[in-house]
Amino acid sequence: MSGERKFVSPFHRPHCLSAAAPAGKAKLTHPGKAILAGGIAGGIEICITFPTEYVKTQLQLDEKANPPRYKGIADCVKQTVQGHGVKGLYRGLSSLLYGSIPKAAVRFGVFEFLSNKMRDEAGKLDSTRGLICGLGAGVAEAVVVVCPMETVKVKFIHDQTSANPKYRGFFHGVREIVRTQGLRGTYQGLTATVLKQGSNQAIRFFVMTSLRNWYKGDNPNKSINPLVTGFFGAIAGAASVFGNTPLDVIKTRMQGLEAHKYKSTVDCAVKIMRHEGPAAFYKGTIPRLGRVCMDVAIVFVIYEEVVKVLNIVWKTD
Q1: Measuring CA to CA, which residue among 156, 170, 155, 140 is closest to residue 38?
Q2: What is the pTM of this model?
Q3: Could you read off the pLDDT of 199-245 as tens digits, one per residue?
């Protein structure tokens, strides 16, 4: 086939491409549409997957240096429900929800902006460029949204384990953190967060772009069923989990209430290795795997469907 007929690119574009792309060249997605669609997808996804995020964070904070409080995933869920009811599994949801919407919006918006600049004449984005665009999107979301919001979320969840919880809600918690630690208190673990989010999105977009290019072959307008998109998203999510769980563990420790124990990201890694061993870097992998696979699949599917609707009601050509 000629170079003009080769695939377009990342995960979200397929539906809108097949609907309106001129033959031989794929239609680009406007960054504005990506921001709106990403925000909607992010909000819906976090409401569905938060309980697994809660369990993952609890297990990571349950350090071996002290007597373990939980025997495993099931025990963590059991103790939480017994002590706080089912709603206890949603403690900290508000802070993560407030962060999830702008996080996904920034991620997809930046990715579309960068990918639109890096495509070839036929509108094709190869896997390597997809990885670079994903890296840029991950770094952007880490600095603008993820680090401050994740810091607040981890502090909320960790605060629940204390005898006398001091945070009454999201805004009260933010106010207390800023009052006692300054704005810097919401940016604990920035280096680890940038490394984690950057590698996260680089891996996911690389895998998604590769799978889409493989699936569409030489036909950039070939439609992809939402179930196939979800399956590809789950694979991309799994790849990112195994690729950067150690960074996720370090980030969580750096943002917890005991973050003062660590001088830096490197110091945190060294102390975890010295006191808990290499296995500690993969604590919470199973619950994180389930959450992330579902997370990525849901976000990609919803994102594409929303973009399809926006292409009808919002003309940008």
Answers
A1: 140
A2: 0.71
A3: 999 999 999 999 998 998 877 777 889 999 999 999 999 999 988 88
Q: Rounded CA gap, 298 and 261, in Å? A: 37
HEC string for 10-70: CCCCHHHHHHHCCCCCCCCCCHHHHHHHHHHHHHHHHHHHHHHHHHHHHHHHCCCCCCCCC
Give 112's Cβ-side CA count (13 Å radius).
24
Which tokens is 278 given?
């290499």
Unique residue bearing structure tokens 């690729």: 243
Residues 6+ apart with CB under 8 A from 145: 99, 102, 103, 106
Q: Which residue is associated with the tokens 């992998």?
A: 285
3-class state of residue 214 by DSSP? helix
Q: How many residues does the chain have?
A: 317
Paired tokens of 27:
């239609």
Query: Alpha-carbon distance 61 to 258, whole Å?
Result: 9
Q: Are 185 and 177 in contact (CB under 8 A)?
A: yes
For the stretch 254-297, pLDDT in tens is: 877 777 888 888 899 999 999 888 888 888 788 778 778 988 99
Alpha helices in the chain (DSSP H): 14-20, 31-61, 73-84, 93-118, 127-141, 147-160, 170-181, 190-216, 226-255, 265-276, 285-313
